[in-house]
UniProtKB/TrEMBL annotation:
Species of the source: Bosea vaviloviae
Keyword Acyltransferase: no
UniProt xrefs under Gene3D superfamilies: Ribonuclease Z/Hydroxyacylglutathione hydrolase-like (3.60.15.10)
Key words, A-Z: Signal
Keyword Signal tagged: yes
Protein name (record): Zn-dependent hydrolase
PANTHER family documented for this protein: UPF0173 METAL-DEPENDENT HYDROLASE YTKL
Domain of life, per lineage: Bacteria
Signal peptide: 1-27
């Protein structure tokens, strides 16, 4: 091999190495915008104590919220390996739609890891756990498989009961809710719902779901770049009031909920 050929191969090798070093890491998901850098949110460790009738919600990103109780119990929704709160939660709920909604390596310090599906394939998942002043239970839903088939009862919505407040996280909901789902959910004060309109239920269907739930606070999640969120808010203009918050954390109490159903937008994606 000539000396010039050796130099050419060496240069190509350096270029390839540089490309590997500078190319961004990608999440193992076919959803847009779900990359590990989303996990850059760092929550303050010290926060004001909650009154006995309050709950604190922080939108960590994508479909992950940190829910905190007056007793210090923390739950993370759709806990995954890319978007995580800084603090290790006591309870982690997951769904199996994509890798940005579940974790293969949950923190071993988590006391309760609750997948929204039965890993043994024996039907619907069944969870009803109480830890401190938080009760968490699931309501099974169907989910589309990668082949397009329906996996009946293959996923879950999760309900968090803290004092007098009832919070429902709809997860990766793919279909309208039937009367049986509504009965199982019960009264919902705060609902966390996806608005992308394509990977999950279409936006028209989601509006109908929200109307059926009649929650006083509705917090959108699972939107990409903000365009799907803005499209949803234009659709609901005149249907519900909308409040936009500057910070991703909000403290709520039963007595302080809005008189009329209100969409509250927390910054995130």
């Amino acid at each position: 091999m000539s000396f010039s050929s050796m130099l050419m191969r060496f240069g190509l090798g350096l270029a390839a190495l540089a490309g590997l070093m500078t190319s961004p890491a990608r999440a193992q998901s076919d959803e847009p915008g779900c990359r590990p850098e989303m996990a850059s949110l760092r929550l303050p460790v010290q926060r004001a104590a909650l009154a006995k009738d309050e709950v604190r919600l922080t939108f960590v990103g994508h479909a992950t919220f940190l829910i905190e109780t007056p007793g210090g119990i923390r739950a993370a929704t759709d806990y995954n390996d890319y978007v995580r709160p800084r603090e290790t939660p006591d309870i982690a709920t997951m769904n199996k739609a994509h890798s940005t909604h579940n974790s293969r390596n949950p923190d071993p310090a988590i006391k309760q890891v609750l997948p929204g599906w039965d890993s043994g394939g024996q039907g619907a998942a069944k969870h009803d756990v109480t830890l401190g002043d938080m009760r968490v239970r699931n309501v099974p839903t169907n989910i589309r498989s990668y082949s397009g088939a329906t996996d009946y009862d293959g996923n879950s919505m999760f309900v968090f009961e803290i004092g007098d407040l009832c919070i429902a996280h709809l997860g990766h909901l793919h279909h309208p809710l039937e009367p049986g789902h509504l009965r199982a959910l019960g009264r919902v004060d705060i609902v966390l719902f996806p608005v992308d309109g394509s990977y999950t239920l279409d936006q028209e269907g989601m509006v109908e779901v929200l109307k059926s739930l009649q929650a006083k606070v509705m917090i959108p999640m699972h939107f990409f770049g903000g365009s799907s969120l803005e499209r949803f808010l234009r659709r609901t203009d005149g249907v519900w009031a909308t409040e936009r918050k500057a910070e991703p954390t909000i403290t709520l109490a039963k007595a302080g909920l809005p008189a009329q159903p209100t969409i509250i937008v927390l910054p995130g994606n």
